[in-house]
Amino acid sequence: MKLKKIIAVAMASTMMLAMTACGNTPAPAADNTTTDTPAADNTAAPAADNTAADATAAAAQDADAAAATVGEGGNIGVCIYKFDDAFMTTYRNALQEILEGKGYTVTVMDGKNDQAEQNNQINNFIAQGVDALIINPVMTSAADQIIATVKDAGVPTVLINREPTAEQMGVYDKLVYVGCDARQSGTMQGELILDTANKGDINGDGKVSYIMIQGDPENIDAQYRTEFSVKALTDAGMEVEELDLQRGDWDRNKGQEIAQNDLAKFGDEIEVVFCNNDDMAIGALQAIQAAGRTVNEDIYLVGVDALDAALNEVANGNMTGTVLNDAQGQAQGAVDAMEALLGGKTYAEGEQSIYVDYVKVTPDNVSNFQ
To answer: For residue 354, with 0-12 CB atoms within 10 Å meaning exposed, 13-18 middle and 19 or more buried, which class applies?
Structure first.
């Protein structure tokens, strides 16, 4: 900012000296494009020295104001679908720390799981003139509207955690998605069951009987984790039986309630409890323990995210395993992609998704993640 100020002062002084040599020509109006400084008085200056001094002061004020407008790194708007999601809390904290560490001015908004609320937040960020947006959509089905809005405004945008289709993203070349491929996480959940001594068939009847506690079924991650966890079993030649599938909306209390009701209804028939995330798995564990069942002995339980609470339960033998959803790696990837966009990079359709790998977490390697 000091360098900008010195240059501005020098340019103003040089211009005023040139004007003095040509006579007391009226000074031009100040440029108000990037600041709130009022236009300069266009009355002819009574003395060259005073004109130069006034212009120098105005230029210095303009330089200061312009620098203050965007901060050292620029203004970044971040929209999170809701703040009380355990995984997204870890993610947004990592994201904010990385951005602020790079000198950006960051504003993070809570969408409160309300797409209309988030739409207003996006519009407000655009009206404020942010340099870039990082958006965790409330609803994947709102992707078309979000993309149209940021495209019309020409704002470089990174979508995180909830992935639109390649066709949806392809309409705007200053848009990129950074996240994990949810199909991989579902496959890894199935592999955690296949890695057990009986491959999930605890009662030896030749099939794996399971309940599925799903997140938001509208969410592509929930869809893929649900599908590919079971597909891993069938691809390995296992017969499966779905006893129940219910939406738990990523919520611990709902996970506990669903598992409790299913354990009461199906009892020992349940061999595996698949949960689309760790928060619901922790709730399910409470119900399993209350029902007198023992994880890894007469029932298996898997989640996704590798939250601290889940890592502790894996280490203590109370969860069969989880899958690391690398919040830190995704946050860093989102910032890297944002900076590439700010630097002028554009993306062609089909090249707009950047993935960070999941990692299976078991009792054997859990200490590496704690």
So the answer is: middle
54 and 114 in a single domain? The answer is no
- The pLDDT tens digits of the residues spanning 228-287 come to 999 999 999 999 999 999 999 999 999 999 999 999 999 999 999 999 999 999 999 999
Asked if 310 and 191 count as a contact pair (C-beta separation under 8 A), the reply is: no
Instruction: Indicate whether 257 and 218 sit together in one domain.
Output: yes
- Bridge partners, 109 (sequence order): 79
Q: Which two tokens stand for residue 175?
A: 């848009």
Is residue 296 located within the same domain as residue 209? Answer: yes
> Do 298 and 193 belong to one domain?
yes
Domain extent for 195: 183-324
Dist CA 125 CA 131 (whole Å):
9
Give the total number of structural domains in the chain.
3
The CATH number that applies at residue 161 is 3.40.50.2300
User: What gap in Å lies between CA 291 and CA 301, rounded to an integer?
Assistant: 14
Report the phi/psi class of residue 214: left, alpha or beta, with left for phi > 0 and alpha for psi in -120 to 50.
Answer: beta
183-196 pLDDT, tens per residue?
999 999 999 999 99
Under 8 Å between Cβ of 321 and 359: no
Q: Which pTM value belongs to this model?
A: 0.74
Determine contact, residues 170/148, Cβ cutoff 8 Å: no
Residues 9, 7: Cα–Cα separation, whole Å: 5
Tokens representing residue 80 in the block:
């999170």
Whether residue 253 lies inside any domain: the answer is yes
In a domain, 363, yes or no: no
Question: Quick check: 111 and 143 in contact, CB under 8 A?
Answer: no
Where does the chain show beta strands of DSSP type E?
75-80, 105-110, 132-135, 157-160, 175-179, 207-214, 239-247, 272-275, 300-302, 322-324, 353-355, 359-361
User: Do 121 and 82 contact (CB within 8 A), yes or no?
Assistant: no
Rounded Cα–Cα distance for residues 289 and 267 (Å): 13
Question: Residues with Cβ < 8 Å from 137, sequence gap 6 or more?
Answer: 79, 81, 115, 118, 143, 146, 159, 161, 162
